Amino acid sequence: MKIRVGLVGLGDAWEKRHRPALRALGDRFEVRAVYDQVRHRADLVAHEFDAASVDGFRSLTQREDVDAILILASQWFASLPILAACRSGKAVYFGAGLDLDARAAERIKRRVAEAGIAFMAEFPRRQAPATLRLKELIATNLGQPRLLFCHRRLPIVDQVSAPLAKRSVTQELVEQVDWCRYVVGKEACWVTGVMYEDREASAQEDYQMMSLGFCDDDNPGAGPVAQISCGRYIPQRWREAVSYRPLAALQVSCERGIAFVDLPSSLIWFDEAGRHQESLESERPVGEQLLTQFYRAVTSLVSKTCDLEDAYQALWITEQARRSHQEGRRIPLREDAGS
To answer: pTM of the prediction?
Structure first.
């Protein structure tokens, strides 16, 4: 059975993740329509996949020859294609990254539940080979995480040459929060946030950091702590500075060792026996794994929306980190339940 899909937005992951995955899974997916705010780009992709290039995402979601919508970039339309897909009863693969406030995300969550459609949010960090191997090591050699350091440095992109689908700091933070929640395997109980924005220098120039606490119900003062940060403060034209001494995407200090993760497939870990380096390049690409999961969700008789709940929780936590900065205090998360 092939799922006929329509593409909405062609983001910065199209060439490296989505295009190769759709090609490799040609026996499961058939691209029937393409929409992008740059019409020429949509025309090229439509020609490559022998599909139709359409004028808008609403007309795409209403096509009878489309079973599911792959939203691969937010662009100007943000979350509107999700609502359009709900009205048409089409399954949604959301690979654009959430950049909404919690109220808007709550409305989307409610509409998806009412429509009864399959919904899958793309979390590539979760399915990266290095992350899956890290979870195995936590269960065997390393033991439970105690401290996590998750950092991301983004360049300030020149508006003239910037890709239309460039990711925001909020989108990156939401994925980082979800990544840490997935690695720890527990729900966070408190968050403290710090923000910096230089309004005079650049509207893009900002930095956000949070400390996220995971504690047991019977011991609220203990448990793993994740330090998460993302900033955009180095101009893209300073290529040497942008690439200088990049930090590991994730460092995890565990009960019996420590691990350093670089996405998608590099993992170095240490225990009493010494240093271990693993390269997982031969594993199945992340894009194929994610689309295979979406295929199963669409063809299953059971509606799958757990990823939407995870995305909402990560977005809500990111918003509470901003609230922490504004109010100058630590925000308890389990008392102010986000769902």
So the answer is: 0.85
Place of tokens 């489309």: 66
Tell me which residues of the chain have a pLDDT lower than 50.
160-165, 336-339
The dotted CATH code for 125-282+320-332 is: 3.30.360.10
| Distance (Å, whole) CA 298 – CA 111 | 18
Q: Which two tokens stand for residue 97?
A: 């990254």
Residue range(s) occupied by CATH 3.40.50.720 in the chain: 3-123+286-305
Sign of CA dihedral 286, 291, 293, 294: positive
Residues of the chain with CATH 3.30.360.10: 125-282+320-332
Per the listing, tokens 């997916």 go with 29
CB count within 10 Å of CB 160 equals 5
Q: Which CATH number fits domain 3-123+286-305: 3.40.250.10, 1.20.1290.10, 3.40.50.720, 3.30.930.10?
A: 3.40.50.720
Q: Kindly give the residue spans of alpha helices, DSSP state H, lying in 75-117.
A: 80-88, 102-115
Q: Are 32 and 5 in contact (CB under 8 A)?
A: yes
Question: Which candidate, 317, 297, 294, places its Cα nearest to that of 70?
Answer: 294
Span 193-209, pLDDT tens digits: 999 876 665 555 588 99
Identity of the amino acid at 40:
H
- pLDDT by residue (tens digit) across 232-257? 877 777 777 777 777 889 999 999 99
- Cβ-based burial of 20 (10 A; exposed 0-12, middle 13-18, buried ≥19): middle
* SS3 assignment, position 270: strand
pLDDT at 102: 72
114: helix, coil or strand?
A: helix
